[in-house]
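--- STAGE predict ---
source: upstream dedup step, 1 unique chain passed
mode: sequence only
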Amino acid sequence: MSEAAPRPWFGQPRGLTILFLTNMWEQFSYFGMRALLVYYMTKELLLSQGQSSFIYGAYTACAYFTPIVGGVIADRLLGKRRAVIIGASIMALGHFMMAFEPLFYPALATIALGNGLFLPSLPSQINDLYAAGDPRRGWAYNVYYVGINIGGFLAPLVCGTLGEFYGWHYGFGAAGVGMLAGLLIYLAGQKYLPPEAPRMPTAELPATRWADHRRTFAALLAIALSVTVFRGAYEQVGNTVALWADTGVDRLAGGFTIPMTWFQSLNPLLVMLMTPALLAYWRRRADAGRDTSPARRMAIGALVVAGAYLLLSLVAGFTGEARAGWLWLGLFFLIFTFGELLILPTGLGLFARLAPPRLGATTVAAWYLAIFTGSLSAGLVGTLWSDMTPASFFGLLALIAAVAALLLRSLDRMVRSVDRAWPSESV
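--- STAGE serialize ---
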Protein backbone atom coordinates (compact mmCIF):
# COMPACT_ATOMS: atom_id res chain seq x y z
CA MET A 1 0.00 0.00 0.00
CA SER A 2 1.36 3.40 -0.91
CA GLU A 3 -0.57 5.29 1.77
CA ALA A 4 -1.11 4.60 5.42
CA ALA A 5 -4.65 3.58 6.28
CA PRO A 6 -6.70 6.32 8.00
CA ARG A 7 -6.80 6.19 11.79
CA PRO A 8 -9.73 4.07 12.94
CA TRP A 9 -12.87 5.43 14.55
CA PHE A 10 -13.93 3.70 17.78
CA GLY A 11 -11.29 1.03 17.20
CA GLN A 12 -12.76 -0.02 13.83
CA PRO A 13 -12.16 1.03 10.20
CA ARG A 14 -13.86 4.34 9.39
CA GLY A 15 -15.96 2.66 6.72
CA LEU A 16 -17.75 0.63 9.39
CA THR A 17 -18.99 3.86 10.97
CA ILE A 18 -20.35 5.02 7.60
CA LEU A 19 -22.10 1.70 7.01
CA PHE A 20 -23.32 1.72 10.63
CA LEU A 21 -24.89 5.19 10.34
CA THR A 22 -26.36 4.55 6.90
CA ASN A 23 -27.99 1.38 8.15
CA MET A 24 -29.13 3.09 11.37
CA TRP A 25 -31.18 5.66 9.46
CA GLU A 26 -32.52 3.08 7.01
CA GLN A 27 -33.70 1.02 9.98
CA PHE A 28 -35.22 4.14 11.53
CA SER A 29 -37.36 4.49 8.42
CA TYR A 30 -38.24 0.78 8.27
CA PHE A 31 -39.12 0.34 11.94
CA GLY A 32 -40.87 3.70 12.04
CA MET A 33 -43.21 2.59 9.30
CA ARG A 34 -43.53 -0.90 10.79
CA ALA A 35 -44.49 0.45 14.22
CA LEU A 36 -47.48 2.17 12.63
CA LEU A 37 -48.49 -0.32 9.95
CA VAL A 38 -50.81 -2.73 11.81
CA TYR A 39 -52.41 0.07 13.82
CA TYR A 40 -52.88 2.17 10.66
CA MET A 41 -54.61 -0.68 8.85
CA THR A 42 -56.92 -1.63 11.74
CA LYS A 43 -57.72 1.87 13.06
CA GLU A 44 -57.56 4.10 9.96
CA LEU A 45 -58.20 1.83 6.98
CA LEU A 46 -60.59 -0.28 9.11
CA LEU A 47 -59.27 -3.59 7.79
CA SER A 48 -59.96 -6.74 9.81
CA GLN A 49 -57.30 -8.13 12.14
CA GLY A 50 -56.76 -11.20 9.99
CA GLN A 51 -56.44 -9.18 6.78
CA SER A 52 -54.12 -6.66 8.45
CA SER A 53 -51.86 -9.40 9.85
CA PHE A 54 -51.67 -11.09 6.45
CA ILE A 55 -50.82 -7.79 4.67
CA TYR A 56 -48.20 -7.07 7.33
CA GLY A 57 -46.61 -10.48 6.82
CA ALA A 58 -46.83 -10.25 3.03
CA TYR A 59 -45.18 -6.81 3.04
CA THR A 60 -42.30 -7.83 5.31
CA ALA A 61 -41.89 -11.00 3.22
CA CYS A 62 -41.71 -9.03 -0.04
CA ALA A 63 -39.27 -6.57 1.54
CA TYR A 64 -36.95 -9.53 2.11
CA PHE A 65 -37.69 -11.34 -1.16
CA THR A 66 -36.52 -8.56 -3.46
CA PRO A 67 -32.94 -8.66 -2.03
CA ILE A 68 -32.59 -12.16 -3.49
CA VAL A 69 -32.76 -10.63 -6.97
CA GLY A 70 -31.17 -7.35 -5.89
CA GLY A 71 -28.03 -9.08 -4.62
CA VAL A 72 -27.43 -10.71 -8.02
CA ILE A 73 -28.01 -7.37 -9.79
CA ALA A 74 -25.52 -5.67 -7.45
CA ASP A 75 -22.84 -8.33 -7.97
CA ARG A 76 -23.28 -8.72 -11.72
CA LEU A 77 -24.41 -5.31 -13.02
CA LEU A 78 -24.52 -2.27 -10.72
CA GLY A 79 -21.87 -2.84 -8.09
CA LYS A 80 -22.58 -2.52 -4.36
CA ARG A 81 -22.22 1.25 -4.04
CA ARG A 82 -24.50 2.13 -6.93
CA ALA A 83 -27.04 -0.44 -5.73
CA VAL A 84 -27.12 1.18 -2.27
CA ILE A 85 -27.62 4.67 -3.70
CA ILE A 86 -30.38 3.66 -6.13
CA GLY A 87 -32.10 1.46 -3.55
CA ALA A 88 -32.06 4.15 -0.85
CA SER A 89 -33.52 6.72 -3.25
CA ILE A 90 -36.37 4.41 -4.24
CA MET A 91 -37.12 3.58 -0.61
CA ALA A 92 -37.24 7.24 0.39
CA LEU A 93 -39.80 7.81 -2.35
CA GLY A 94 -41.89 4.90 -1.07
CA HIS A 95 -41.90 6.19 2.51
CA PHE A 96 -43.10 9.61 1.39
CA MET A 97 -45.80 7.92 -0.69
CA MET A 98 -47.08 6.29 2.53
CA ALA A 99 -48.23 9.75 3.64
CA PHE A 100 -51.01 9.59 1.02
CA GLU A 101 -53.76 7.06 1.72
CA PRO A 102 -54.63 6.28 -1.95
CA LEU A 103 -50.97 5.30 -2.54
CA PHE A 104 -50.89 2.76 0.32
CA TYR A 105 -50.32 -0.40 -1.74
CA PRO A 106 -48.04 1.20 -4.39
CA ALA A 107 -45.99 2.70 -1.53
CA LEU A 108 -45.47 -0.71 0.09
CA ALA A 109 -44.38 -2.13 -3.28
CA THR A 110 -41.97 0.77 -3.89
CA ILE A 111 -40.29 0.34 -0.49
CA ALA A 112 -39.91 -3.39 -1.09
CA LEU A 113 -38.30 -2.81 -4.51
CA GLY A 114 -35.78 -0.30 -3.19
CA ASN A 115 -34.97 -2.58 -0.30
CA GLY A 116 -34.02 -5.27 -2.79
CA LEU A 117 -31.00 -3.29 -3.98
CA PHE A 118 -30.11 -1.69 -0.65
CA LEU A 119 -30.32 -4.50 1.87
CA PRO A 120 -27.79 -7.09 0.58
CA SER A 121 -25.36 -4.50 -0.78
CA LEU A 122 -24.69 -2.60 2.46
CA PRO A 123 -23.62 -5.33 4.93
CA SER A 124 -21.73 -7.25 2.25
CA GLN A 125 -19.22 -4.35 2.20
CA ILE A 126 -18.21 -4.97 5.83
CA ASN A 127 -15.97 -7.97 5.10
CA ASP A 128 -13.90 -5.96 2.61
CA LEU A 129 -12.94 -3.43 5.31
CA TYR A 130 -10.69 -5.97 7.05
CA ALA A 131 -7.62 -8.04 6.21
CA ALA A 132 -8.16 -11.80 6.27
CA GLY A 133 -6.59 -12.26 9.72
CA ASP A 134 -7.99 -9.14 11.39
CA PRO A 135 -9.55 -10.28 14.70
CA ARG A 136 -11.96 -7.30 14.67
CA ARG A 137 -13.85 -8.79 11.74
CA GLY A 138 -15.49 -11.41 13.96
CA TRP A 139 -17.26 -8.74 16.03
CA ALA A 140 -18.02 -6.27 13.24
CA TYR A 141 -21.47 -7.67 12.51
CA ASN A 142 -22.55 -7.33 16.13
CA VAL A 143 -21.39 -3.69 16.05
CA TYR A 144 -23.33 -3.24 12.81
CA TYR A 145 -26.35 -4.87 14.44
CA VAL A 146 -26.31 -2.20 17.14
CA GLY A 147 -26.78 0.39 14.38
CA ILE A 148 -29.88 -1.47 13.26
CA ASN A 149 -31.26 -1.23 16.74
CA ILE A 150 -30.43 2.42 17.41
CA GLY A 151 -32.64 3.20 14.42
CA GLY A 152 -35.20 0.69 15.65
CA PHE A 153 -35.21 2.29 19.10
CA LEU A 154 -35.68 5.85 17.89
CA ALA A 155 -38.27 5.02 15.23
CA PRO A 156 -41.29 4.11 17.42
CA LEU A 157 -40.57 7.06 19.71
CA VAL A 158 -40.47 9.56 16.84
CA CYS A 159 -42.58 8.06 14.05
CA GLY A 160 -44.87 6.20 16.44
CA THR A 161 -45.58 9.25 18.58
CA LEU A 162 -46.18 11.47 15.54
CA GLY A 163 -48.48 8.90 13.99
CA GLU A 164 -50.39 8.00 17.15
CA PHE A 165 -50.98 11.54 18.43
CA TYR A 166 -50.72 13.88 15.42
CA GLY A 167 -51.75 11.76 12.44
CA TRP A 168 -50.51 8.57 10.81
CA HIS A 169 -49.19 10.39 7.75
CA TYR A 170 -46.82 12.55 9.83
CA GLY A 171 -45.26 9.37 11.19
CA PHE A 172 -44.83 7.93 7.70
CA GLY A 173 -43.31 11.22 6.49
CA ALA A 174 -40.76 11.15 9.33
CA ALA A 175 -39.72 7.68 8.17
CA GLY A 176 -39.01 9.13 4.71
CA VAL A 177 -36.81 11.85 6.23
CA GLY A 178 -34.80 9.14 8.02
CA MET A 179 -34.20 7.30 4.76
CA LEU A 180 -32.89 10.48 3.13
CA ALA A 181 -30.53 11.03 6.08
CA GLY A 182 -29.04 7.57 5.57
CA LEU A 183 -28.54 8.21 1.87
CA LEU A 184 -26.74 11.51 2.49
CA ILE A 185 -24.40 9.92 5.05
CA TYR A 186 -23.50 7.17 2.60
CA LEU A 187 -22.76 9.65 -0.17
CA ALA A 188 -20.61 11.80 2.12
CA GLY A 189 -18.57 8.87 3.44
CA GLN A 190 -17.79 6.97 0.26
CA LYS A 191 -14.06 7.68 0.50
CA TYR A 192 -13.89 5.49 3.61
CA LEU A 193 -15.63 2.51 2.02
CA PRO A 194 -13.80 -0.49 0.50
CA PRO A 195 -13.03 -0.27 -3.22
CA GLU A 196 -15.36 -2.05 -5.59
CA ALA A 197 -14.11 -5.46 -6.72
CA PRO A 198 -14.28 -6.05 -10.47
CA ARG A 199 -17.62 -7.60 -11.39
CA MET A 200 -17.23 -11.04 -12.91
CA PRO A 201 -19.90 -13.36 -14.32
CA THR A 202 -20.49 -16.39 -12.10
CA ALA A 203 -19.36 -18.75 -14.87
CA GLU A 204 -15.86 -17.25 -14.74
CA LEU A 205 -15.21 -18.16 -11.09
CA PRO A 206 -12.49 -20.83 -10.70
CA ALA A 207 -14.04 -24.20 -11.55
CA THR A 208 -11.98 -26.10 -8.96
CA ARG A 209 -13.82 -24.33 -6.12
CA TRP A 210 -17.40 -25.17 -7.09
CA ALA A 211 -17.51 -28.43 -5.13
CA ASP A 212 -16.66 -26.49 -1.99
CA HIS A 213 -19.20 -23.83 -2.87
CA ARG A 214 -21.92 -26.44 -3.20
CA ARG A 215 -21.08 -27.85 0.23
CA THR A 216 -21.10 -24.37 1.72
CA PHE A 217 -24.39 -23.43 0.11
CA ALA A 218 -25.96 -26.68 1.34
CA ALA A 219 -25.04 -25.77 4.92
CA LEU A 220 -26.30 -22.21 4.51
CA LEU A 221 -29.55 -23.44 2.96
CA ALA A 222 -30.15 -25.72 5.94
CA ILE A 223 -29.53 -22.79 8.31
CA ALA A 224 -31.90 -20.63 6.26
CA LEU A 225 -34.69 -23.21 6.45
CA SER A 226 -34.31 -23.41 10.23
CA VAL A 227 -34.38 -19.63 10.52
CA THR A 228 -37.54 -19.61 8.39
CA VAL A 229 -39.26 -21.65 11.10
CA PHE A 230 -37.85 -19.39 13.81
CA ARG A 231 -39.06 -16.19 12.17
CA GLY A 232 -42.61 -17.50 12.08
CA ALA A 233 -42.54 -16.80 15.82
CA TYR A 234 -40.00 -13.96 15.91
CA GLU A 235 -41.87 -11.63 13.53
CA GLN A 236 -44.97 -11.60 15.73
CA VAL A 237 -43.38 -8.81 17.80
CA GLY A 238 -44.54 -6.16 15.34
CA ASN A 239 -47.77 -8.02 14.57
CA THR A 240 -49.82 -9.95 17.15
CA VAL A 241 -47.68 -8.96 20.14
CA ALA A 242 -48.30 -5.34 19.16
CA LEU A 243 -52.04 -6.03 19.04
CA TRP A 244 -51.90 -7.63 22.51
CA ALA A 245 -50.01 -4.59 23.83
CA ASP A 246 -53.00 -2.50 22.74
CA THR A 247 -55.84 -4.70 24.04
CA GLY A 248 -54.37 -7.05 26.65
CA VAL A 249 -51.85 -4.95 28.58
CA ASP A 250 -52.49 -2.36 31.30
CA ARG A 251 -50.27 0.47 30.05
CA LEU A 252 -50.87 2.84 32.98
CA ALA A 253 -47.63 3.80 34.76
CA GLY A 254 -47.80 6.44 37.51
CA GLY A 255 -50.86 8.12 36.01
CA PHE A 256 -49.35 8.11 32.50
CA THR A 257 -50.63 5.78 29.79
CA ILE A 258 -47.66 4.43 27.84
CA PRO A 259 -48.28 4.77 24.07
CA MET A 260 -48.66 1.35 22.49
CA THR A 261 -46.00 2.08 19.85
CA TRP A 262 -43.37 2.79 22.52
CA PHE A 263 -43.15 -0.88 23.44
CA GLN A 264 -41.64 -1.44 19.99
CA SER A 265 -38.62 0.55 21.22
CA LEU A 266 -37.86 -1.85 24.07
CA ASN A 267 -36.34 -4.53 21.85
CA PRO A 268 -33.77 -2.29 20.10
CA LEU A 269 -33.00 -0.43 23.36
CA LEU A 270 -32.17 -3.72 25.04
CA VAL A 271 -30.02 -4.75 22.05
CA MET A 272 -27.91 -1.62 22.58
CA LEU A 273 -27.62 -2.19 26.33
CA MET A 274 -26.89 -5.91 26.18
CA THR A 275 -24.55 -6.14 23.18
CA PRO A 276 -21.35 -4.74 24.82
CA ALA A 277 -21.53 -7.19 27.72
CA LEU A 278 -22.34 -10.07 25.39
CA LEU A 279 -19.41 -9.22 23.09
CA ALA A 280 -17.05 -9.06 26.07
CA TYR A 281 -18.28 -12.47 27.24
CA TRP A 282 -17.79 -14.01 23.80
CA ARG A 283 -14.33 -12.47 23.52
CA ARG A 284 -13.28 -13.99 26.86
CA ARG A 285 -14.58 -17.42 25.80
CA ALA A 286 -12.74 -17.14 22.46
CA ASP A 287 -9.50 -16.16 24.18
CA ALA A 288 -9.88 -19.18 26.47
CA GLY A 289 -10.50 -21.46 23.49
CA ARG A 290 -14.11 -22.17 24.51
CA ASP A 291 -15.99 -20.23 21.83
CA THR A 292 -19.47 -21.56 21.02
CA SER A 293 -19.98 -22.72 17.44
CA PRO A 294 -22.34 -20.59 15.29
CA ALA A 295 -25.14 -23.15 14.87
CA ARG A 296 -25.13 -24.03 18.56
CA ARG A 297 -25.23 -20.37 19.53
CA MET A 298 -28.17 -19.83 17.18
CA ALA A 299 -29.98 -22.87 18.64
CA ILE A 300 -29.60 -21.48 22.15
CA GLY A 301 -30.99 -18.16 20.93
CA ALA A 302 -34.09 -19.79 19.42
CA LEU A 303 -34.68 -21.71 22.65
CA VAL A 304 -34.45 -18.49 24.69
CA VAL A 305 -37.04 -16.86 22.40
CA ALA A 306 -39.27 -19.91 22.96
CA GLY A 307 -38.96 -19.26 26.69
CA ALA A 308 -40.00 -15.63 26.18
CA TYR A 309 -43.19 -16.66 24.40
CA LEU A 310 -43.88 -19.32 27.02
CA LEU A 311 -43.76 -16.52 29.62
CA LEU A 312 -46.40 -14.54 27.68
CA SER A 313 -48.54 -17.66 27.39
CA LEU A 314 -48.47 -18.19 31.17
CA VAL A 315 -49.16 -14.51 31.90
CA ALA A 316 -52.06 -14.34 29.44
CA GLY A 317 -53.50 -17.59 30.82
CA PHE A 318 -53.24 -16.41 34.41
CA THR A 319 -54.82 -12.98 33.81
CA GLY A 320 -57.64 -14.31 31.60
CA GLU A 321 -59.99 -11.50 30.59
CA ALA A 322 -58.12 -8.92 32.71
CA ARG A 323 -55.24 -6.86 31.38
CA ALA A 324 -51.70 -7.96 32.25
CA GLY A 325 -49.28 -5.53 33.89
CA TRP A 326 -46.97 -3.80 31.46
CA LEU A 327 -43.91 -4.98 33.39
CA TRP A 328 -44.62 -8.52 32.16
CA LEU A 329 -44.34 -7.27 28.60
CA GLY A 330 -41.06 -5.58 29.52
CA LEU A 331 -39.72 -8.86 30.94
CA PHE A 332 -40.79 -10.64 27.76
CA PHE A 333 -38.75 -8.20 25.66
CA LEU A 334 -35.72 -8.66 27.93
CA ILE A 335 -35.70 -12.44 27.43
CA PHE A 336 -36.69 -12.18 23.76
CA THR A 337 -33.85 -9.75 22.97
CA PHE A 338 -31.22 -11.92 24.62
CA GLY A 339 -32.27 -14.81 22.38
CA GLU A 340 -32.33 -12.57 19.31
CA LEU A 341 -28.74 -11.45 19.92
CA LEU A 342 -27.59 -15.05 19.89
CA ILE A 343 -29.27 -16.03 16.64
CA LEU A 344 -29.71 -13.16 14.16
CA PRO A 345 -26.30 -11.35 14.09
CA THR A 346 -24.61 -14.77 14.19
CA GLY A 347 -26.56 -15.93 11.15
CA LEU A 348 -25.88 -12.75 9.14
CA GLY A 349 -22.16 -12.91 9.97
CA LEU A 350 -22.00 -16.58 9.00
CA PHE A 351 -23.54 -15.94 5.57
CA ALA A 352 -21.23 -12.97 4.90
CA ARG A 353 -18.10 -14.81 6.08
CA LEU A 354 -18.73 -17.88 3.94
CA ALA A 355 -19.60 -15.93 0.78
CA PRO A 356 -17.62 -17.12 -2.28
CA PRO A 357 -15.38 -14.56 -4.02
CA ARG A 358 -17.28 -11.79 -5.86
CA LEU A 359 -20.61 -13.20 -4.69
CA GLY A 360 -20.83 -11.32 -1.40
CA ALA A 361 -24.11 -9.50 -2.04
CA THR A 362 -25.68 -12.60 -3.59
CA THR A 363 -24.81 -14.77 -0.58
CA VAL A 364 -25.99 -12.18 1.93
CA ALA A 365 -29.20 -11.98 -0.11
CA ALA A 366 -29.67 -15.70 0.58
CA TRP A 367 -29.85 -14.82 4.30
CA TYR A 368 -32.73 -12.51 3.48
CA LEU A 369 -34.44 -15.40 1.69
CA ALA A 370 -34.92 -16.91 5.15
CA ILE A 371 -36.38 -13.62 6.37
CA PHE A 372 -38.72 -13.56 3.35
CA THR A 373 -40.06 -17.06 3.91
CA GLY A 374 -40.15 -16.55 7.67
CA SER A 375 -42.07 -13.28 7.36
CA LEU A 376 -44.59 -14.89 5.03
CA SER A 377 -45.12 -17.75 7.46
CA ALA A 378 -45.40 -15.24 10.31
CA GLY A 379 -48.19 -13.47 8.43
CA LEU A 380 -50.04 -16.76 8.04
CA VAL A 381 -49.49 -17.68 11.69
CA GLY A 382 -50.74 -14.22 12.69
CA THR A 383 -54.11 -14.86 11.06
CA LEU A 384 -54.77 -17.43 13.84
CA TRP A 385 -54.73 -14.70 16.50
CA SER A 386 -58.47 -14.01 16.33
CA ASP A 387 -59.32 -17.73 16.46
CA MET A 388 -57.27 -18.58 19.56
CA THR A 389 -56.91 -17.29 23.09
CA PRO A 390 -53.75 -15.21 23.70
CA ALA A 391 -52.44 -17.93 26.04
CA SER A 392 -52.78 -20.69 23.45
CA PHE A 393 -51.47 -18.50 20.62
CA PHE A 394 -48.32 -17.54 22.54
CA GLY A 395 -47.89 -21.21 23.48
CA LEU A 396 -47.95 -22.04 19.77
CA LEU A 397 -45.21 -19.45 19.14
CA ALA A 398 -43.10 -21.00 21.90
CA LEU A 399 -43.45 -24.38 20.21
CA ILE A 400 -42.45 -22.97 16.80
CA ALA A 401 -39.29 -21.35 18.25
CA ALA A 402 -38.40 -24.57 20.11
CA VAL A 403 -38.67 -26.60 16.89
CA ALA A 404 -36.29 -24.12 15.22
CA ALA A 405 -33.85 -24.60 18.10
CA LEU A 406 -33.84 -28.38 17.58
CA LEU A 407 -33.24 -27.97 13.85
CA LEU A 408 -30.32 -25.59 14.37
CA ARG A 409 -28.75 -27.84 16.99
CA SER A 410 -28.89 -30.78 14.57
CA LEU A 411 -26.90 -28.76 12.00
CA ASP A 412 -23.98 -27.98 14.32
CA ARG A 413 -21.58 -30.61 12.98
CA MET A 414 -22.21 -29.68 9.32
CA VAL A 415 -21.76 -25.95 9.93
CA ARG A 416 -18.61 -26.41 12.01
CA SER A 417 -17.08 -28.52 9.24
CA VAL A 418 -17.75 -25.89 6.57
CA ASP A 419 -16.73 -23.00 8.83
CA ARG A 420 -13.36 -24.61 9.66
CA ALA A 421 -12.57 -25.41 6.03
CA TRP A 422 -13.61 -22.12 4.47
CA PRO A 423 -10.86 -19.66 5.60
CA SER A 424 -8.09 -21.69 3.96
CA GLU A 425 -10.16 -22.13 0.81
CA SER A 426 -10.97 -18.49 0.30
CA VAL A 427 -7.46 -17.04 0.50
